[in-house]
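Task: sequence design from structure.
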């Protein structure tokens, strides 16, 4: 879908951007980790709810890869091994602290009801891209999560 011109035009229209500014296909995770902080690789990384230091093979190499970044931002509800390496940690809510819907891996939409209040600093993950942009001192177009 990311290479389909009609789909790209639709997404660009929703976000109010030029379709040519949308990214193309990405690279496999291990290839991305290998490229972090290199001359042609990403200089910053936003990690959402993933502990790549533990989940990727060769934790020492992953730590070194992450260490080459100019900026590592981690959005997570726990201080994971990856989060503890971050320049910025964005505390996020977990499923019981949010009201709304989610789509599971089967494509089913599930209603979620809030069972507990979130800690004061935690925010819902759709808000995090805006917080990450502010943390990186980059302007953003959104005042909160996606439309």
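Answer:
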């Amino acid at each position: 879908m990311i290479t389909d011109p009609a789909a790209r035009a639709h997404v660009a229209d929703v976000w109010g951007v030029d379709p040519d500014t949308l990214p193309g296909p990405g690279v496999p995770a291990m290839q991305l980790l290998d490229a972090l902080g290199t001359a042609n690789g990403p200089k910053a990384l936003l990690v959402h709810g993933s502990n790549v230091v533990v989940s990727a093979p060769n934790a020492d190499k992953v730590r070194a890869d992450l260490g080459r970044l100019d900026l590592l931002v981690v959005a997570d509800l726990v201080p994971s091994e990856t989060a503890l390496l971050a320049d910025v940690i964005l505390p996020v809510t977990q499923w019981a602290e949010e009201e709304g819907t989610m789509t599971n891996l089967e494509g089913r939409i599930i209603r979620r009801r809030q069972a507990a209040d979130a800690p004061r600093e935690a925010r819902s993950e759709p808000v995090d891209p805006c917080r990450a942009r502010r943390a990186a001192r980059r302007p953003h177009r959104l005042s909160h999560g996606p439309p």
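The chain has five helices and five strands.
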